[in-house]
Amino acid sequence: MCLFDFSHPNAPFDLIYRDKQTVGHLLGLAMQSVSNQICVTTILGSSCKTTENQAMLCDQGGLYTLAALLCSQHYTVLMPTLNCIANLAYQNPNVSAMIATASFGGKSVADLLVGLMARDRPSDMQLSSAKCLTY
Question: Is the pLDDT of residue 50 over 80?
Fold first, then answer.
């Protein structure tokens, strides 16, 4: 359901970031199941449109949740996670610097992204990972 609602251009994106608690609650739900991971990253990635949205998502711990999700074995989790990271970093040097220094499980986010560009990964995943690294 969330995949359809929040991929539509007329979805109410502004509602997500109106209250910090909403973002925090979504991030709290993210690690409960693969389904939640897909839905939360799709919602947050689609609705992260301004520098204020980017800052709120980082302030609420979104970067560390996304870093953890980069370790997923599920393509259906990784692709919206990569999209969310790209939207989080887009035209925001401060957030990009935070991403560059973030890590999960002893690996930097940059190293995790490079790993997703490996030859054995699907080409769209390689391109999405490269996009994240360029921001």
Answer: yes
